[in-house]
Amino acid sequence: MISCKEATRLASIQLERKLSLWERIEFRVHLAFCTGCRRAEKQFLFMRQAMGAWMSRHD
User: Fold this and answer.
1) Can you state the angle between helices 21-33 and 35-57, rounded to 10 degrees?
2) Residue 43 to residues 4, 8, 14, Cα–Cα distance (Å)
C-alpha cells in the first residue's frame, strides 16, 4: 500500500490531470483505510472550489 505522503501527492495531482488506472487503484485502496488522507482529499477539493469561486468574482 502507498504511504500517506504518496496519497496526498496523488490527491493533489488528480486536480490537474486524470490519474492513471494504477494510480487510481493505489489511491482508492489507501483512502479505504486512511481517514486522514480522505480528509486531505476533501480539503484539496474544497480549496479548488473556493479558489474558483473567488476567481470568478474577481475577473
Assistant:
1) 120
2) 15, 11, 13
The amino acid sitting at 56 is: S
pTM: 0.83
Cell of 5: 505522503
Q: For the chain, how long is the longest CA-to-CA vector?
A: 43
Q: Residue 7 is which amino acid?
A: A
In the chain, how many domains are there?
Answer: 1
DSSP code of 2?
-
Instruction: Convert the pLDDT of each residue in 8-20 to its tens digit.
Output: 999 999 999 999 9
What range does the domain containing 38 cover? 4-57
Cell numbers for 13: 495531482
